[in-house]
From TrEMBL, chain A:
Domain of life: Eukaryota
Keyword Protein biosynthesis appears in the UniProt entry: no
Family note: Belongs to the aldehyde dehydrogenase family.
Protein name per its UniProtKB record: Aldehyde dehydrogenase 1 family, member A2
Species the sequence originates in: Gadus morhua (Atlantic cod)
TrEMBL record, chain B:
Family recorded in the similarity comment: Belongs to the aldehyde dehydrogenase family.
Example GO molecular function: aldehyde dehydrogenase (NAD+) activity
Annotated organism of origin: Gadus morhua
Pfam families tied to this protein: Aldedh
Occurrences of domain Aldehyde dehydrogenase (ranges): 33-496
PROSITE patterns (alphabetical): ALDEHYDE_DEHYDR_CYS (PS00070), ALDEHYDE_DEHYDR_GLU (PS00687)
The protein's name: Aldehyde dehydrogenase, mitochondrial-like
Active site: E273
Keywords: Oxidoreductase
UniProt key word Oxidoreductase: yes
InterPro entries: Ald_DH/histidinol_DH (IPR016161), Ald_DH_C (IPR016163), Ald_DH_CS_CYS (IPR016160), Ald_DH_CS_GLU (IPR029510), Ald_DH_N (IPR016162), Aldehyde_DH_dom (IPR015590)
Amino acid sequence: MLNKLESLFSIQRSAPYLTQALLLPGRRGLQGAHSLSQSLSASLSPSPTKFFSPQIFIDNEWHDSVSGKVFPVYDPATGEQICEVQEADKADVDKAVQAARRAFALGSPWRRMDASERGRLLAKLADLVERDSVYLATMESLDCGKPFLTTLFVDLQGTIKTLRYFAGYADKIHGTTIPMDGEYLTFTRHEPIGVCGQIIPWNFPLMMAAWKLGPALAAGNAVVLKPAEQTPLTCLYLGALVREAGFPPGVVNILPGFGPTAGSAIASHMGIDKVAFTGSTEVGKLIQEAAGRSNLKRVTLELGGKNPNIIFADADMDLAVEQAHQGVFFNAGQCCTAGSRIFVEEPIYEEFVRRSVERAKRRVLGSPSDPTTEQGPQISQEQQARVLELIQSGISEGATLECGGKAHGLKGFYVEPTVFSNVTDDMRIAKEEIFGPVQQIMKFKTLEEVIERANDTDYGLAAAVFTNDINKAMAISTAVQAGTVWINCYNALSTQCPFGGYKMSGNGRELGECGLKEYSEVKTITMRLLAKNS
Amino acid sequence: MRPKLIVAVPTLRTSCHLHIILIVFQLFINNQWQDAQSGKTFPTINPSTGEVICHVAEADKTDVDRAVKAARAAFRLGSPWRRMDASDRGLLLTRLADAIERDAGYLAELETLDNGKPYAISYCVDIPNVVKCLRYYAGWADKWEGKTIPIDGDYFCYTRHEPIGVCGQIIPWNFPLLMQAWKLGPALATGNTIVMKVAEQTPLTALYVANLIKEVGFPEGVVNILPGMGPSAGAAIAAHMDVDKLAFTGSTEVGHLIQQASGSSNLKKVTLELGGKSPNIILSDANMEEAVEQAHFALFFNQGQCCCAGSRTYVQADIYDEFVERSVERTKNRVTGDPFDLKTEHGPQIDDEQFKKILNYIDIGKKEGAKMLCGGKAASDKGYFIQPTVFGDVHDQMTIAREEIFGPVMQIMKFKTLEEVLERANDTKYGLAAAVFTKDIDKAHYLSSGLRAGTVWINCYDVFGAQAPFGGFKASGNGRELGEYGLDNYTEVKTVTIKVPQKNS
């Protein structure tokens, strides 16, 4: 099994070639390659780290599952199996939690470590990810189906920057001293919460791991991380780098497995102090319930969205069309931030639809390894079917299908870039999260009306407004109920800026200084004094 | 700050005669090496021998003008430095820390050669703290956040933390590399440009670091380093109309001049880290062995050449005699000698001027009636070595109890009550540091609250971390270095207020 993996991922020769193919004009070396696995399986060069294995990572070692079970991982561009991975369930979660508990015990190397040293380890991890970034991008592209170049320039950069950012925070998590009434000295300590369960999705596997590990480790917690069953590979590779960087055993444990077994065991575990989940709103509710039923563990959730993108008539049309297009189609529409409700002001509606359709028709579908590819497959057959079903509902509910609407290609899980106009707010495609390449364009007349319609949803993750009018920009950004508002841009995410949801899009914030708060317990220490002075 | 890792010190490549091959002895302006406009040079001396190491280009006013122009150009709107992502500024600082760590052995040798401090200390204390300081501020670069503010009325209000501009930085000779890092770290993390004057006694390591600054990729003109003298180059920076901020570490006497120069020129922002006469208070319930060792370390570390030296040791009456006896014994055991010998605890003073000044203070102490218990003389016929010296029966009005000696001379005084010692400890124009040794939590808090000093150590001394702010009350300075507070001194806050049609919470 491992041999096959190594042959699939032997990219040391080929990946620079991929990059060259884009960077050198006129050179289209990989045209015609059907998939990375096909183009790369001939060579047999080893991975940059020898330690990687598709197993369960506990205590800095690889383990088989207690049950002996494995599960297959597929290339969504072809539907072919890549390899099998050890499948964690409750017994493995128990083992991992015990390891994390030991790592977090008072007096342990991790607890005794200088905060600056925790930061140095995270910085080292970032350096290792950077060293192996071409390899990781190849693996991510293969497992996830996202275009290789996007993976290298967006996912890997985002991962490296997030780890570096939180590395810098490790020794800057300040408590305060407090001018309390009476003869006392009061100060706070920001302590790690303890063992943190982290359950991450398949749309940005590596980057979501970094978003979770960065703040948790900077703040000094120990982690039990479950990657999505669709995309466990890069996360496991990260486990190898965690060990190489020198994190003590048990600080990071990575368990590939399924939600109803491993995920649920984490959410309801009595030895886990906090759970952070990124995924669907439906599962988010289960997580919160499990915490309520078990030990009231702290819960942070980053869930779905149905994000309004509001285009005023005075906006720069070229910019707005392109950004609205990227806002919904980026990552094959598989973004919780996808701008899936485009509200366009009436005077420019027809023009905006026309240009958006034209742009969507030009979107290049293809092999993730082809440097010209803009859009790869959906993650799985199940997701593909779900997206196609919602497209059908749009047609039957009377929206105008402007382009796309069908599966694409003979193999793999592709869906054509799809645009609907004349969408009304009550249609399913205007209410439900599609998580696919489907753009809904609605019409509005007034500021007040669009604010009300934009907010008329259970979700509140992100929103955007395109206008050159500073007053409209300020009014919309104040009024929309969303954790992130972009003005004349979309998906402008950065590790310094907090991200998270209002309403049913989540609880808590990731990234930025806010992200650290979710991984800290504040302890107030009050000491009796003989005589206080200012 | 204590060396714990003597065994880890690498073997010296060159014994005490270092071949200086990797640096240029010129002015570093615009990422280029340049001679002084005047053509002048000055010698830098090995304080262990009194011999000249090499000659270095001597900057004066015209060179300062050139450096300020370069720094100004690097700071103009739209420049690479101003357009750079904050996280990339941080990455450059990280890479500078990495480069210094890579060259730690060489830099430690050079520091010891030029400054005289024991090589084991250079390698185990100075260099690691330099690296940590730069890494610490690297992390701040993209975390120095402004605020949005719930202002009254139909307005939206936010602050931007902007760099001040061209910062003059004048650093001393007692910790040349470390003081350079304390200055570079916060100034660069916040996006300023720098004209730095290094002390004429110890220019070499700073110039080596200049090479590394260029190597890791800081844009031209962001950091400019000028070796030179205070009255010429230093004064030119302090009085320059186009320098926006000045940070100085050195004597209180020169600190006065700097602040005056700012007032008579362009009101540049001034931060000062100056002298001290820091009290170290030993209560009778303290762990005697630890208190003796820490009080010894507090004063004699770096040959007594620390602004925070614990130079007034107040000991409670009932343990006074024993404390004095043990301190003298410890001091007599202090190993003085060749700083490149790994057993050496104590090297030479920095130069002839300091050497003579300290011996003169010792004479005054004797004349004014303090009891000299050990030391008191030059320790070698070449170089600037002085025997570790202890005075007992010192009274508060004696010169050695009031003035900063900046040498290996310990003053031990007796006190009876907490109220008394607090009053005596605060009876000084200085307020840099203080320490208390006691097991009693109430006494520790009573004294730490009452002491007028920017840093108070409890049951420890000279504990520095890049994370913890440092600076002086009263005539020991203005502003704070290190920690988050250190960033304030390199930041202009801009309040931006936007009229909005209708505010909502």
